[in-house]
Structures are given as C-alpha cells and as structure tokens.
Amino acid sequence: MGVAIEPIYLTVAAELAERFREDAVQRDKEGGTPKTQRDWIRESGLLKLLIPEEYGGDGGLWSDVLKVVREFSRSDAALAHLYGYHFLCMVAPHLAGTEEQKRYFYELTARHHYFWGNSSNPLEKSIIGKHTTRGVVVNGSKSFSSGSPDSDLLAISWNDEETGEYYEGIIPTSREGVRIVDDWDNMGQRQTGSGTVVFANVWVKPNEILERPYSGQTVFSTIIPLLSQSILASIFIGSAAGALEEARAYTKTHAKPWYTSGVEQASAEPSTIARYGDLWTDYQSALSLVEKADRELDYIWSKDIDLTEKERGECAVLIAAANVKAGKTALDITNRIFEVMGARATSSKYGFDRFWRNVRTHTLHNPTEFKLRSVGNWYLNGVSPLPGFYS
Hints:
single chain; alpha+beta; eight-stranded mixed beta sheet; 12 helices; about 10% strand; globular
C-alpha cells in the first residue's frame, strides 16, 4: 500500500506555521500588525488557493482553505484568522456581485497576491453613504475591522443616508480618505488588527458596489455567515491541536511529577496519561464534526446559484453544530492543558495562555446560545435557520 502524498499547499502551510511559531509568543504580547508574516503568506501563493483556475488561481476547495486555517492556528490563531477572513472577504463579489466583478477581483487578487481586509460590520450602522452620479461617498467608522491593516483591498459596508438600505463594496485600502486606526487591544487575537477604520469622504465607484449583499436574487448569496462560522470552527479546533502539542512537549521535557506519585517522570504518571487520553479523544471528536461540515460546505459551494433553501438550511445547521462543538472543546482543552503541565507552565515566557485567550475572544463573536437554538429548532421542529447576518 502506497504512502499518501501531502498536497503541496499543506506542506507550504505547515512550513509557514513553524516559522510563525518561532516568535508567536512575543508577537502576541506586542500586538500590532504582523507585517513580516503577512508578507510570507503573500509570497507563499496561498492567497489564491480558492480562486478558480480560469481566473489564475489554484482551483482549491473551501475544505482546503480550512485545512490551512487549522494548520496556522496550531501556532498562531491571529494569522489563521487573517488568512481565513481574506477569503471570506474575497468571495463577496462571487456571492453578491456581477460576473464582471467576480472575474475582475479574482484575477486582480491572483495576479498580485493581494491580501483582503474587512471593514464590514452589518450590525453597526455607523457608515453613511450618499449616492451621486459618480458613485457613492461614504463617511463614518467601523469597528471589528479584522485584517484591515496592511491589506490591499478592503470589503466595506454602509447604509444609504436616504433609505437606510445596506450596501457593500470593494475598494483599495490605500484610497484617499481611508484611515486605519491601531486601536485593537483585546485580550486575544492580538495581531488581527480588528480595530477601527475611519472613512472621510471616501469614493466608492459604481463598479465597486455589490448589488445583493447577504440576500437578494439567490440563496447562494446568503451563505457568508456559513463561511464565517466554518473559518472560526477551524480556528477553534486548530488552536486546540496546537495547545495539546505544546502541552505534550512541555510535559515530556519540563513538567515535574508530584512528589507522592511514585514516578520519576510526569509523563509516566497514570492520571496524567489518562487526562491526555481524554483530551485527545475530545479533540478527535470535534475535529471529525468540523471535517464533516467542511465537506458539506464544499458541496453547497459547488452548487453556486443552483443552491436550494433546503440544502442551505441543512448545511447551516451542521456548520453551527460544528462551530459550537469546536468552540466548547477548544475552551476545555486550552484550559485543562495546565492540569497536565503544572504551575510552572503558567509563566508568561511560555505563552500557553494565548491559546485560551484566542479561543475565548472568538467564541464570543456570535453567541453559542443562538446557534444552539437554530440547531435545536431544526431537529425538533424541522425549521431551518433563517438566513441573516449570523445564521
């Protein structure tokens, strides 16, 4: 029986993840923008993984992208977030734009290895757009603008000053009037640049305005929340994997057995061995559900505009369940690793707490309670989740 050959993109991703690991702890403490590491990703070619071959990309699947997200999360969940949300923003013209916009932005990204950023928070009506014969002029600011620093293209949103209608558009981040504020100072995901972007009389050209964001002419145009939840689920379970790996290495090389345990090495202590068995089993269970959801996401993505409401609903429920399971499992694992490492492992020099802080920050992105209600209502009452900004 032959040995399976790892896809080249995963080999590249694993090599990058190891490079990220070298100073991940220090960068987490410093915050700011990981410019050097972002450029490594640009140079790797991984930013065009999902783009169809006809537009100059690699023709990969969403499950391929999510494998890379999990690989990056093993060492640096912030860079994993930036990478995953690059694609979340990049596919907006595919979902909600015209054929011309889809081709233009895919080809532009593939040709220049552009990194996409986000300044589109649909629940925050803080940017107002004024329509003119030359396009739209937007003013205001957006928070939670993940990936905006050092991005090449920026997905933005606004509400029309007259109708209040919600719009989205794509602009160069360098456009006049765009100011990225370095004010992200949260306890986790410290290098995602998820702070504020200010817009002062910023022009959005007619061909940069998307025609049906989140809802409109097709079921397919409503799946952005499914993509976002899938990315976060992979960040969660990838972080759990990274925490387990670092804990294992520490336990085998640094941890001390309890003085009454009767063993000379912490790795020989029966309760420690059992705890690792429990943690690994929980991780594998959650990973299996995430991978199942990834396969379903590949399927609905392949349906494109032929996607049905039933197919979307079934996939939305599975992804919500995977997101919840991955989040709960990751929170548990990133907390319990300290039980198998001991008190010395809490030293800030190791940075093991970053895994929990990153997962905890992101699991608050859209509350577990409401995802569980969607799953439960589908199972109990046969009601599919209503398409919205987070479902």
